[in-house]
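Lecture 7, part 2: worked example. A protein chain together with 2-phosphoglycolic acid.
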Amino acid sequence: MMKWSKIRAIAFDLDGTLIDSVPDLAAATNATLVQRQYPPVTEALVLSWVGNGAQVLMQRALSYVSAMAEDDPELQLLLEQTMPQFMHHYGEHLQKHSRLYPGVLVTLQQLKQAGFKLAIVTNKPYRFTVPLLSAFGLDGLFCEVLGGDSLAKMKPDPMPLQHLLEQWQLDESQLLMIGDSKNDILAAKAANIMSIGLTYGYNYGEDIALSHPHAVCENFADIEQYLL
Ligand SMILES: O=C(O)COP(=O)(O)O
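Predicted complex, written out as structure tokens:
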């Protein structure tokens, strides 16, 4: 039986949960596409491609503009050539237009104050995750930061969450995953831990409730009712 009162540590997703990062991801995607002589795409399209890390985002973007299938070997080759350009552009944009969602900073501070161990478990490459956290004054709050490339597998694989369980010597009932995407909820279920789904982020246009997290919240601060 899963119980909120057992939770001692919380893993947070980043994009679409703590930070609205799509404006900068879209700017970097478009700078890359234009550099490759493709037309730019809308922010709404980029939003629908976020969730499985930088490489898959660019793979979806290139497939869209070139009309090649995502698994076409020619697209794979193009992707390999294009990734360094995307990584450069995203490094340039990182926090230009991104913003923290309402209530994030205060709620995280209160949870830390209450004694919860906090971690970031994102599919964003690690090298962008750390500077983004510090740009928004969040860096001191987390004892562990795992990027999409920190371990051999990323969400929806449970590996990053299993890593935290092991690292922190926690029982499965003591770790909670909070995120906006089905990748977060699937990873939590595969790791046999509790999860909260947030409705305001990016989930490929799907209702997060369809992934059956243990609770659904409309605002970040609403998570407090289960924890404080
Ligand atoms: O970078 C992505 O594709 C998604 O990142 P997230 O796991 O923080 O939502």
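The chain has a mean pLDDT of 97. The radius of gyration is 17 Å. Keep this in mind for problem set question 3.
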